[in-house]
Write a structure and sequence with these properties.
- By secondary structure, the protein is mainly alpha-helical.
- It is built from six helices and three strands; from the N terminus they run E-E-E-H-H-H-H-H-H.
- The chain has a three-stranded antiparallel sheet with strand order 1-2-3, with helices on one face.
- Helix 2 packs parallel to helix 5 and helix 5 runs antiparallel to helix 6.
- The longest helix has 73 residues.
- The termini are far apart.
Length: 367
């Protein structure tokens, strides 16, 4: 999947975050999205084409996610990026903000298209095939959003969550805590890098202004200023990588943890409902020897379906997580290596210049 990058967005100025509309909301131009459903050889009968290129707004993505959550309550629905600006990434409307959001929305659709169940959902079909969405209401108002699926257990308290799902919950709590710690440290590093970059730029300016006062040291001073400029550019690239690539992935997985916990809660509610109905049926059977109601068997089937779907999605999520973090950490390592190599090459070139200058001075003295 790929998304086009709209240009020319106006600055939002210094408005509070709460007053800023999302750049892909109904007040803005829709987003162009290309979705691949299996290549040229796809046999998906419910889709007319193997690839779709559509224009959608943020609210349309929100509509799709709500519909998927309502119609597929036993599955993990990928999270959407938050509607407003993420702390530490950008603080106003900008191309960087739009690009970061577009990458996240692109990943959201890709995860759905790759899912063996969600990719067959009719609401995805509607999202991709609906026409005439250029009006302000968009897809989100074509259908009223229904309430999320709720499992009522009549206040019944779950006996015990199975051990494997307890382990999932404990892992999610620990993982979320680790992500929070990394995010806080990364935010602090990003702030310190920004402050250092400001000082470094001022440092380079001093050497540039010094050139006019020292004719004999013109070349070394110009080279020092050039080295500082190179280091500034390298540090700026490093900060952009952290703000646009590293932090958004951390935030995505924080949202993923919440989505997974939500599915776990629904599974627990389903189990509680089954246990409550089963106990009530056993009491009735003891009193008047009535057969086990069909509703109890349906609740049992629902719990088993929940368990099977959740396990499958858990494995898929773990696999995606390993791949995403491997790519994230490898990219971060490459960016840091590239940063220090640029800085090292710049300062080494200064050493060569100073050595040549020293040789010239000795030759001049000898003559």
């Amino acid at each position: 999947m790929s998304v086009g990058t709209p240009r020319g967005l106006a600055s939002s100025g210094q408005k509070p975050i709460a007053d800023i509309l999302h750049p892909l909301s109904a007040a803005e131009e829709p987003l162009s999205v290309t979705v691949n459903l299996g290549g040229d050889k796809t046999t998906r009968a419910e889709f007319d084409l193997p690839e779709y290129c559509v224009r959608r707004r943020y609210q349309d993505f929100d509509w799709l996610r709500i519909k998927l959550e309502d119609s597929q309550p036993t599955h993990l629905i990928p999270p959407l990026p938050e509607k407003f600006v993420m702390k530490g990434v950008v603080d106003r409307f900008s191309e960087e903000f739009v690009e970061t959001r577009m990458k996240a929305l692109d990943k959201f659709l890709k995860r759905i298209a790759d899912h063996p169940v969600l990719s067959f959902n009719p609401h995805l079909n509607a999202f991709l095939t609906a026409k005439d969405l250029n009006k302000r209401q968009g897809l989100a108002l074509l259908t009223k959003v229904g309430e999320s699926v709720k499992h009522v257990a009549g206040g019944y308290k779950l006996r015990a969550r199975p051990a494997e799902f307890c382990a999932m919950g404990e892992y999610l709590d620990t993982f979320n805590q680790k992500l929070g710690t990394i995010d806080r440290i990364a935010q602090r590093i990003l702030k310190e890098q920004s402050e250092y970059l400001t000082e470094l730029r001022e440092y380079g300016t001093v050497y540039s202004s010094w050139v006019g006062l020292e004719d004999e040291l013109r070349r070394p001073l110009e080279r020092v200023a050039g080295c500082v400029t190179t280091c500034c550019a390298a540090l700026e690239d490093l900060g952009e990588n952290m703000s646009q690539d590293f932090l958004p992935v951390l935030r995505e997985y924080v949202l993923y943890v919440e989505s997974m916990k939500n599915v776990l809660r629904k599974r627990d509610q389903s189990q509680a409902e089954y246990e409550a109905r089963l106990e009530a049926a056993i009491l009735r059977k003891q009193e008047d020897r009535t057969p086990m109601p069909v509703e109890v068997e349906k609740c049992q089937d629902k719990v088993e379906c929940f368990n099977a779907d959740l396990k499958a999605d858990w494995e898929r999520w773990q696999s995606n997580k390993r791949q995403d973090f491997k790519q994230l950490l490898t990219g971060m390592a490459d960016k840091n290596i590239n940063h220090y190599e640029k800085c090292q090459a710049a300062w080494e070139s200064l050493i060569t210049l100073l050595q040549d200058k020293q040789t010239e001075d000795k030759t001049s003295e000898t003559n």
